[in-house]
Write a structure and sequence with these properties.
357 residues, alpha/beta, eight-stranded parallel beta barrel, two-stranded antiparallel sheet, DUF72 domain-containing protein, DUF72
Length: 357
């Protein structure tokens, strides 16, 4: 890896003001959604991005966090579809988009999915497509939470290795097969009790990751990554636990975490290794800003909260890692800039600009 890739990065500039891309005068009104029996197709405009896609590093896979957004009409979808239709049948069209070579299955975080549910996803995907899948929160959250997200009580299954294998690893392997690319263990914000016992925490995490890796002996291509929501965990002992278990650090670009340049040193300490990045939430909305971001960004068809700083440093990181022969998985949420497919297209342009300079 280039020595300068993670060093001497510029400071974070003041956030740019929100800038919504508004429809041009005379734009046609939005058409009514197609009937439920219709099957989504990929937008004709996607073909225009094939040339850009062909120039990107082959080791790079970019994609979105889920896919059931009607606002992506004429960006990803070939027409207006209801979100329920897109959730059930849209993945096949999504996978035809030249820039979208992965997707993050976030749904699995809220409750474990079955083998049949994963099989339904795999049946819509080409052989060369790979999925990023999140471990259920019943394993990765130290608290059992109420519907409003507030912690109710201590979670006795937190970082339970046996449950992680039976409720997550085995179903994903059986259902997705070769289309499984990354298993992400996102640790929700931890209780003070755990934050004050990092040695116990990292030992328990390492034991879980080792149990996961034991299930992947015949699947060495699957990456195991850990994402955190507590900056206090970005310490050498965390990296040591990941390295010992053959896992990597997932860059979690989120309001609860430091900016990308402050997370990169931990990733560098694990070199050589792949890049897994989830660009989740624009920092301008703060650590608890999902609801505000959703309100500001709906219907998710435009860049509303541009973040060129993150985009530029992420492109630089991708170029360095893939240029050294390592794989890179990058997924983007609508909450990052307002429209994940447009953010991915801009990230691709940034990568090509770096190549040309």
């Amino acid at each position: 890896m280039q020595d300068g890739l993670f060093d001497d990065l510029p400071p974070v500039p003041a956030p740019e003001p929100a800038a919504r891309q508004r429809p041009t005068a005379g734009a046609k009104p939005r058409a009514a959604a197609k009937p439920p029996e219709s099957r989504p197709g990929v937008a004709a405009s996607a073909a225009q991005l094939s040339g850009i896609a062909a120039q990107l590093p082959p080791l790079l896979r970019m994609g979105c966090s889920t896919w059931s957004y009607p606002g992506w009409e004429d960006l990803v979808w070939d027409g207006p579809y209801d979100s329920s239709v897109l959730a059930k049948h849209g993945l096949a069209a999504y996978a035809q988009h030249p820039l979208l070579r992965t997707v993050c299955i976030d749904r699995s975080f809220w409750r474990p999915l079955t083998v049949s549910q994963y099989l339904a996803y795999a049946g819509q995907l080409p052989e060369d497509f790979r999925c990023v899948v999140k471990c259920p929160s019943v394993v990765t959250d130290a608290l059992v939470r109420a519907e409003d997200g507030r912690g109710r009580e201590t979670n006795p299954a937190f970082l339970d290795a046996q449950l992680a294998v039976s409720a997550f690893v085995q179903p994903t392997l059986e259902g997705l097969g070769q289309r499984l690319g990354v298993l992400v263990f996102q640790l929700s914000p931890l209780t003070w009790d755990w934050l004050t016992r990092p040695k116990d925490l990292f030992a328990r995490l390492q034991a879980l990751l080792e149990a996961v890796q034991a299930q992947l002996v015949d699947h060495p291509e699957v990456i195991v990554a850990v994402e955190v929501r507590d900056p206090e965990l970005l310490v050498p002992a965390f990296a040591q636990a990941l390295r010992a278990a053959g896992a990597t650090f997932c860059l979690g670009l989120h309001g609860k975490m430091p900016p990308i340049e402050d997370q990169l040193p931990l990733l560098r300490s694990l070199w050589p290794g792949p890049l897994v990045c989830r660009w989740n939430l624009n920092r301008r909305f703060g650590p608890y800003g999902y609801e505000d971001a959703q309100k500001a960004h709906a219907p998710f068809n435009a860049i509303v909260s541009p973040d060129p700083h993150t985009r530029a440093l992420l492109a630089r990181t991708i170029a360095g890692i893939t240029g050294a022969g390592q794989r890179a998985y990058v997924t983007v949420s609508n909450d990052a800039e307002g429209c994940a497919p447009r953010s991915i297209a801009l990230l691709a342009e940034e990568l090509l600009k770096n190549d040309a300079s």
